[in-house]
Amino acid sequence: MIDLITCSAKDLALYIKEHRFPHNASEAASFLQEAVSTVSSNVPSPTQSSILKATATPSPTAHDNDMNIKRYIEQNLGDPQTHIPDQFVSCISPRGKYQFSFHKNGMILLKQTSNGSQRIIITYKNIQHMIQFPKSDDCRQKKKMIQKLGLLVFHNPVSLMVGEDTILPSNGSKPKSFSQICLPWPLEDNAEIELQKASKIYSIKWTQCFNGPQNVFFQSDHDKFPFVSCYHGVNTGSLYPLQSGLLFFK
Fold first, then answer.
1. What's the N-to-C CA distance of the chain in angstroms?
2. What angle do CA 88, 61, 70 make, to 5 degrees?
3. What is the pTM of this model?
4. Which string of DSSP letters, residue by residue, matches 121-180?
5. How far is CA 2 from CA 20, 31, 69, 184, in A?
6. Hey, where are the domains in the chain?
7. Which of the 8 DSSP states describes residue 6?
8. What integer pLDDT is reported at residue 50 of this predicted model?
9. Cα–Cα distance for residue pair 109/107, rounded to 1 Å
């Protein structure tokens, strides 16, 4: 006798041939072939297997991702600040048009792409320094309306996010992240007030560089600009001296 639990396929075939069909090898082979066919008919094909797996463990839907995003924002940023309307801003770094919205504990930059929504989530506690400065080209061209810019410098880099997942580049490198973000300023009036309040609560350093004598850090002798022109090879830029350090803008 053989142990049906532990025997090999070969042992089982030889046992059937010797004990059930000892004088007819072809009948033994036919019997075993029928057994194989019966077993095979109950095994799903690779395509069927994939379908069954997908049915048993469905992948997250767009609704699931939306719920993850909502949960993440609630846990990290708190409730939306409804008294501050959302704004669409053309960011300088990272480049692109983003929807700018405020929450109790931070801000969100939202960008719609062909691959879905991308978010940069900024908590106030992660902002180290906020700097306001005039766009140097507007100053040189003596425009009546000079565009002001804002630079947010972070303690820890912030990443592009989809839900609770960072966006992984196709080449397998690290997720795209930013140690600072540059965007047009000023924002809507209530937004300005909100940021000034956050800077006091979270001890965020706030620096303002303006044209003329109100700039306490630096002004050029000739134009009274808060910056000087500088060059690196054939590239031109502007250097803004600050109370501690320098800001370079190209």
1. 87
2. 45
3. 0.65
4. EEEGGGEEEEEEEE-HHHHHTT-SSPPEEEEEEEEEEEEEEETTEEPPPTTS-PPPEEEE
5. 14, 18, 59, 82
6. 9-56, 62-249
7. T
8. 45
9. 7
